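SAMPLE LOG
Freezer: B-3
Tube label: C17
Construct: single chain, 424 aa
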Amino acid sequence: MKKRLIIVGGGAAGIFCAINAARMCEELEVVVIEKTDKLLSKVKISGGGRCNVTHACFSISDLVKKYPRGGNFLKKEFRLFNTTDTIEWFESRDVKLKTEADGRIFPESNSSQTIIDCFLREANKQKVTILLHKNLIDIEIFEETEKQKRFNLKLYDGEVLTADYLCLACGGFSKFSQFEMLKNSGHTVVEPVPSLFTFNIQNDLLNDLAGISLSDLVVKIAGTKLVERGAALITHWGLSGPAVLRLSAWGAQEFFKKDYESLIFINWVPQFNESQLRENWANFRKELATIKIKNKNPFSLPQRLWDYLIEISGIKPDCKWSELPAKEQNKLIINLCSHELNVSGKTTFKEEFVTAGGVDVSEINPSTMESKLIPHLYFAGEIMNIDGITGGFNFQHAWSSGFIVAKSITEGLKQIIFISEQNM
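STRUCTURE (predicted):
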């Protein structure tokens, strides 16, 4: 009889694990159960519907620095399946990829449906069974032999599925309390909290600047060493964009502890720190002496933002550069380099968020993704306490961990089959 692998979760990690496991071993029955009526929902909406497959970062030592949590574990994971392997996997299935200037990698089609269609073709080709609307409510673990466990998966509709191998790939948050089951079985779980979110800022003047995009600024969380530089977007609710999302990832636990209430500092002119700007200020006053400050800024800032900074610095609209009083000049320099804003909440978008937290990776074998506590129990993707910044890094972890689970299970099963055949 075939052995059965059940994968809980029809997302990126779960489906990638399923199609690779089924391809690697015909003697393995592969079943995916998904609680909703949709597969690959994050793949569908990621990257604005284009699917940021991975990132053009080919050094493992550099790659692991893109993950706020799980870096040491990922060093071993990425030795087994990394960015290069991801690109080769897709391109060998006629999915052409392109690398953008910032290093993000997308399908050439600019459509996430290309990735979804590839996965569904592979699943059909490899005879993967996919069951939708299967809401898991409990897992019973029982022993078959001393070194082997089997699993009864109890579903909401009363059905019970039995598995020889179980892979949990159901993400960081789930209506099924997978973490309670894991805690009861001895696993340590780091409480999952949101990551990759935007900052809500209640500031009427700033909110009037909604729609302004900046290619380069610095954002820092007050009282911490957490700082990010990059592009950002002013929205009607606060701040968004790559720099903010990256900072939210690194500061996920910090923000959670403070209930998303925090003081941040913005440097709108990151080519200067405050000291450097003060040193250059005399040159600006001299070069622009007869020009109204409102009409000319030497930093190429968007006009609406420049008007905002002038207003909050108390500078009169008709004030010329040569006439700028010392008090207002000091305020403007501070507002340019270290503008204070109060974050008073977060915004995440539907299912396009990531969680910080999950199963403690010290209890997972990075070479197999198997639990060190429960034989034949595996983990893939976001259920582990691993998360990356924005830019394709979370998908890379999903592909890598899913592939390693598939390879580990199938190689072990092939060895069992070989030994069995030799003894016949």
